[in-house]
Amino acid sequence: MKTINPNPAFGSHLEPFMGLTTFMRLPATHDLEGVDAAIVGVPYDGGTSFRSGTRFGPRSIREMSLLLWGYNNVLKVAPAEELKIIDYGDVEIIPVDIRKTMDSITREAAQILANKTMIISMGGDHSISLPLLRAHHTRFGPLAVIHFDSHPDTWSEEYPGEAYSHGTPFYNALREGLIDQEAYVQVGIRGPVSDAGDLPEARKRGARIFTIDMIFDNGIPEVLKKIRAIIGNRRLYVSLDIDCVDPAFAPGTGTPEVGGLSSYNILQLVRGLKGLDLIGFDLVEVCPPYDHSSITSILAANLVFEFLSLLALKKNQQKVEKEP
Predict the structure, then answer these.
(1) ∠ CA(283), CA(188), CA(105), 5° rounding?
(2) How far apart are CA 236 and CA 73, in angstroms?
């Protein structure tokens, strides 16, 4: 029997293995007129410290997004019907120069944000979050940030004399004043660290850390309750490193850590952000060369879809609030 995609926003009724692989078959364009959200690839992995290959992440996530039929049965919304969403393509990167790459990311992200279009970024390694935060800070001011990860990424440097890598973006973001220190949350932190002071230093810099043990000891509903109390009504940027998920569920990542969240756990946590004032999202560290059967990319595509669903619900709520 022929399967038919029920979402007319996708265009022609194609099988997942047919046609061009834009995210969810959304229109591929740089025309931002009336666009609510843009899917933006950032295929850069020059900041990686262990296994490289995340430059291929955006392409792989797009390929696996063709399995998404369009309606979120948990959140009860079809994001592509409620929002005008495009696949913007990839920003220009310079593989051999992290500083020029970050400048390019910030510049292009700022141009998109200037059109009042929200950016949903797919990396790439976690170093890309810093230039994205710079662009968002320019538009919105200091940001509340929820940072899903197994690593704090608040080191001042990973290599002597080098300020930028995928282990330093949030140190630099805090140092530059991009993040509201009263509303910076790390979720899923676990595994060995280089020094006993690593997590205390992250807390000293402003991070509210929910380690994996705290999540499992308290339960996800209670953790979400605490996170929501911290964030309040601030403008919220979400950065999701796929290695917050256990490598049993997400093996395709550069720096895997055992003992993490399941696929369902991370879906619960992302869905639990419903109602917060979301203004941006990045999903990073998907590394296809290590991704058996593309299961990491499948999860990543679904997480982008969940975030789009949250944005659709937010827009619907804003419509209701404007009604007389």
Answers:
(1) 25
(2) 24
First to last CA, the chain: 48
Query: Tell me: the pLDDT tens digits for 128-156?
Result: 999 999 999 999 999 999 999 999 999 99
Asked if residue 14 has pLDDT above 90, the reply is: no
Output the 3-class SS for 73-103: CCCCECHHHHCCEEEEEECCCCCCCHHHHHH
Q: Tell me the CATH architecture of domain 21-312.
A: 3-Layer(aba) Sandwich (3.40)
pLDDT in tens, 18-41: 888 999 999 999 999 999 999 999
The whole model's pTM is what? 0.93
206 to each of 53, 173, 277, how far by Cα in Å? 31, 11, 21
Sign, Cα dihedral of 60, 62, 68, 71: positive
Tokens representing residue 244 in the block: 């917050």
Where in the chain are the domains? 21-312
- Cβ count near 205 (within 10 Å): 18
